[in-house]
Amino acid sequence: MDKLLLIDDEADVRYSFRRIFDQPDIELTTADSGEEGLKLIPRLKPDLVIMDVRMGGMSGLETLRRLRQLDAKQMVIMMTAYGTTQTAIEAMKLGAYDYLLKPFDVPRLKQIVLNALKAARDMRQVVSYQPLLESEDYDLGIIGRSEGMQSVFKIIGQLAGSDATALITGESGTGKELVARAIYHHSQRNARTFLAINCAAIPENLLESELFGHEKGAFTGATAQRIGKFEQCNHGTVFLDEIGDMTPSTQAKILRVLQSGEFERVGGNQSIKVDVRVIAATHKPLEQAVAAREFREDLFYRLNVVRVHIPPLRERRGDIPLLVNYFLKKFAQARGGAPKSILPAAAELLERFHWPGNVRELENAVERATVMAKGDVILPGDLPAEISSLPAGGPDQPVPAPAAGAAAPAGGGGGRMDWASVGRTLFQWARQEGEVKVLPAVERELIIQALLEAKGNQVQAAKLLGITRATLRKRVVKYKITQELAIQ
Ligand SMILES: Nc1ncnc2c1ncn2[C@@H]1O[C@H](COP(=O)(O)OP(=O)(O)OP(=O)(O)O)[C@@H](O)[C@H]1O
Ligand SMILES: [Mg+2]
Predict the structure, then answer these.
(1) Do residues 107 and 115 lie in contact, with contact meaning Cβ atoms separated by under 8 Å?
(2) Quick check: 369 and 328 in contact, CB under 8 A?
(3) Using the 8-state DSSP alphabet, how is residue 173 labeled?
(4) Which residue is closest in CA terms to ligand 1's atom 8?
(5) Cα-atom radius of gyration of the chain, to the nearest Å?
(6) Pairing outcome for strands 166-169 and 140-141
(7) Long-range contacts of range 287-294, CB-CB < 8 Å, 24 or more positions apart?
(8) Which of 281, 388, 426, 485 is buried most deeply by CB count within 10 Å?
(9) Is the peptide bond before 312 cis (omega within 30 degrees of 0)?
């Protein structure tokens, strides 16, 4: 249950909030003045405060200033009417998470509230890394007893008293974000803000402004000044996720902020000084990107002060049973029942699989199996097909993508085709390939297969594929398939 506190002196706004957030997972409290809001907060401990900038009595800005003295990391969203955006900017400098323009549109309001609640959870949920599994009183834990994970825990511990920049590396799904949050929670800055930015999820041309803000008129569309994450998160911790995806100009700015704590907003010439701790993560081997001159060497060394490398799950299979137990308990808790148990044969399959998607994939597999299992025990058949169909033998190793025509469909013991697992496998293979565009690649191969099967007859091939002949023809041209078939 997320607790929301709305501070607004207009009864209409309080009324519409009650209607908009009339949902079981949100508990909304309202206050009609800054003074009342400040009185409520220590007792209520809201996950998110939404407050109007302009109020009779204490203004929103003054309320925020006082609130900051009580609690440096209370998540706050400010509301403002057009024309008072300057105040909203001041609010962002005081660490407000975002601001909303009145009159607000409801879907956007809901989206911002959801984002803020997630950010608040990230900040609040303590990620423990010791003791490992025995104690039940953790919100969120990093599980692992393998040597590789023990070194990760050791570094988190060593980092606790320091403000050093940390670079977390590891394949996708190994737990980089989890480790970043653990570092934050065990740092001296844990009473201050933590903001995560996924550099790969923000379009290249917007990332710089997202991080450093911009001045009005800095580029087309920059209709007002904007405060960036570094300024918003002053004295706190910024987590730069997927740092491998940045333009040279953003890289240069990050380097400067790491070296001197200074930067300018995009299109601005006033130098701004901040004190921000940076934790970065990437699944890309940055050394290679440096060698290919895609990533600045000086920035790499500046980030790499402390390196935390999380080994892939297939190199620490001993952690698998612990993780499986942990996830079984977690899903049972979410459902409100007792954890399901797992048949040794199924557990053995999980331990042998090579897990290209690492812990995230294991977590998904356990969740799916929990749902699929009809009784209290998870059987091999409840696991995704690519796991339940593992041939007997030793540990399964990563397989290179098979040549066209060579792969047997992952049918899952002769039963129905499990499309989800076929999709998952293809997707993971494609991710290992890095740059490959998965959908066109797969589509092209499927068309070739169908044409081979139909001995070049397009009408029949189109039928096999479930598309029209016209579509097939277009694809044949687009993917330049004719040459390929002529060779066969
Ligand atoms: N050691 C662990 N113990 C418990 N849960 C874990 C562990 N490692 C990862 N997880 C879980 O696996 C999922 C993926 O973790 P996370 O998002 O931290 O990975 P990531 O390395 O950031 O992945 P990506 O590169 O895809 O962003 C999360 O749900 C996380 O809670
Ligand atoms: Mg991540």
Answers:
(1) no
(2) no
(3) T
(4) 175
(5) 26
(6) unpaired
(7) 289/244
(8) 281
(9) no
Q: What is the CB < 6 Å shell around ligand 1?
A: 142-144, 170, 172-178, 283, 323, 326, 359-360, 363
pLDDT of 136 over the 90 cut: no
Please state at what angle helix 176-185 crosses helix 147-159, rounded to 10 degrees.
30
Ranked by mean pLDDT, which of 96-100, 167-171, 344-348 comes out on top?
Answer: 167-171
Q: Is the peptide bond before 131 cis (omega within 30 degrees of 0)?
A: yes
Cβ contacts of residue 466 below 8 Å, gap of 6+? none
Q: Annotate 126-170 with DSSP letters as a single string.
A: -EE-SS-SS----SEE----SHHHHHHHHHHHHHTT----EEEE-
Measured in Å, residue 332 CA sits from the centre of ligand 1 at: 19
Q: What region does 131 belong to: left with phi over 0, alpha with psi -120 to 50, or beta?
A: beta
Q: For 277-297, how does the pLDDT look when each residue is reduced to its tens digit (9 = 90+)?
A: 999 999 998 999 999 999 999
Average pLDDT score over residue span 317-335: 90
Q: Give the pTM.
A: 0.74
Rounded to the nearest angstrom, the distance between the alpha carbon of 49 and the centre of ligand 2 is: 27
Give the confidence band of 410 by pLDDT, cuts at 50, 70, 90: very low
What is the rounded CA–CA span in Å between residue 236 and residue 277? 6
Instruction: Enter the tokens of residue 277.
Output: 């701790």
Q: State the ligand closest to the CA atom of 144.
A: 1
Please name which of 398, 391, 339, 396 lies closest in space to residue 369, comparing C-alpha atoms: 339
Residue 127's CB is within 10 A of a number of other CB atoms, namely 22
What Cα–Cα distance (Å) separates residue 95 from each residue in 143, 193, 247, 276, 405? 33, 8, 26, 13, 56
Q: In what order do the strands lie in the sheet with 2-7?
A: 26-31, 2-7, 48-52, 76-81, 98-102
- Looking at residue 375, its pLDDT comes to 86
For residue range 62-82, what is the model confidence (pLDDT) as tens digits? 999 999 998 888 999 999 876
Contacts of 322 (CB under 8 A, 6+ apart): 132, 133, 143, 144, 145
Q: Are 127 and 142 in contact (CB under 8 A)?
A: yes
